[in-house]
Amino acid sequence: MSANPLATPAQRAVEDRAMALLRRPELERARTIVSMLWSNAVAWPSRDQADRFDNMIDEYMFHHAMRAANGDPNHPEAARFMVPPHRWFGRDVPGSRWAGDSPDFIYRTIPIAHGGRYEIRGRATCEVPPTVNYSLMADETAAPVTLALLDSLDMDIAADGSFTITVDASPAEGRPNHIQTKPGSEFIMVRDALGDWLAQSANALDVVRLDPDGGAKPEEEMARHCARIAVQGVYYSYYCTQSGAGQAPNDIRPPMSSGAFGGMATQWGTKGNLCLGDGEALIVRCNAAGASFRNLTLTDAFHMSIEYWQRTSSFNMLQMAPDEDGDFTFVVAHRDPGVHNWLDTGGLRRTIFGQRWQAFAREGGHDDPWMTARPVNFDDLAGELPDGVKRIDEAGRADQLAARKAGFDRRFAE
Q: Do strands 371-377 and 350-360 pair parallel, antiparallel, or not at all (unpaired)?
């Protein structure tokens, strides 16, 4: 098995720069403003989860510090973020989750400048590589804009799993793996979608600027950039949260494309605002729609994932079990209903539900994604579930949770 492709010296250097940024007075002031804005907007509706607020602010600030610390287009790196707090290489690294993180994605950013020329050199690190999206983004915090998208399903990849992506302002002109930059381009967001947490790992990536232009960006400039995007980003992240939490309770809206609001243009998604009492459960059903990658995730009232490394608060297409008819049934509940696809709320009365469908076949079309949801009494589940739902016993649940923890730990192997 290959060494962890995320445990690079460049990754640790970016993390160290980001932690140093947080100690600067510009970021301390920005944190005060961010905390006030968030508190004024959510203090009352999220009062039952107030104990999660401070950690949300911690991770929100470190999220933007990571983006700023890896924001030098003259010295680009591929740096991971959007992960929970963790300890590795002898350091306690803050979490950086934000606005509905996916437990199955390895998120990385690569800073670029329009007019610069870059190569992203990659290689697979597992037998069945994950599907990957490379999204060219404008750093517009009010409404993030995807300027271009390269999907691994459309790339030329060598037999040994290696590939090179070219990035510059010129058209592709026959280059197979090319991203053409546009005015306003700031960074490339990389999302490796892991289905098998135990067998799959992110691609190894190295980035080089072919036409270096200037020295390293000063820390002061990084700090100013971080303060700006952190304060301005409150509004978009609040929108992402309210686009789920602002709906009627237990009513999941029809799936739609994510491209219209800064998500991946090749992805369909849906959200719901769930509110379940102690004796209630929600039965959710959906189809696969021909998507190679799918996942469902519960987040808290601040749209942060719920301890997915120790709970079944998310499922992807390999972790979930189909019904006998080929569709899928999930039960959202506070306690174990004895079905394989249990979405564990972690005891939170109010959660935000999200599902995505992506990596559709390029030929032959696909069915439109659909989803239904209906609340029931927990004690009545046996009579309410459709036929053919896969059950699970206590030993099976323990194995399921152990596999999740082992797969999560691989991401932080040193």
A: unpaired
